[in-house]
Amino acid sequence: METNSLALGVLGDPTRRAIFEHLGERSSAVVDLAALVPVSRPAVSQHLKVLRDAGLVRDVQVGNRRIYSLDPDGIAGLRDYLDRFWNTALHSFKARVEHQREGTP
Amino acid sequence: MTGSTVVTTSVVVDAPVDEAFTVFTKDIGSWWPTDHHILQAPLAAMVFEPRVGGHVYDVGTDGSECHWARVLAYEPPTRVVFSWDITLQWQVETDPARTSEVEVRFFPEGERRTRVELEHRHIDRHGDGWENMRDAVGSPEGWGSGLQHFVRRLERSPVGDM
Known about the structure:
The structure holds 2 protein chains of 2 kinds. Chain A is of the alpha+beta class. Chain A is 67% helix and 13% strand. Chain A has a 3-stranded antiparallel sheet.
């Protein structure tokens, strides 16, 4: 729950979202991403760290380059979030309906 | 990837179908999880307008309103469909083409028992980010085992435990 709320929140930043959407098209190194967005390379690295901590992005070392791509587990996590939300909501609904009936003669 | 953008769940309640329907719609504010509102102000009430074309909205204590759903079908006491006009950033989505939808069906299982089945579908409509993610995962040169894992997760059976 914590992780998924975080995943939804981190995409609110436009630069992060641009990085994220680019990674949806192709895996990239920091230097490639820095050429696409109007922020410095260290700032891109910082955004990637946030995305990685949220479970949306993962990285692999290829030679002397670190290549970033979307993390499929994180993607499934967004869907899982709604799955869990509706389960919680329907159980709350059930409790309410049945409690209301107890009060009715 | 059919089915990959759908969430389903269900619950059985000890109540007649008309009562279950009324509580789900008119009394939505009595059970909706309190931490799931995107209003800035503290919540005063939730309103479910009981007609096609109506809205579901939150009302703040300062009088502000947040309209986060449109009623697409209203067929008491067996079926209701509403849109989910909320972005992945928890803002109200104003472009209907980028909203998903929730269908809720009520099946009587005896005089005092109702099965409620919920389907939240077209989740992929919530924007380019989602579509890019899905396309990247689905591409032939994509992530191999990662894709398999992704598909397994999506095809996992609904969680309804009643």
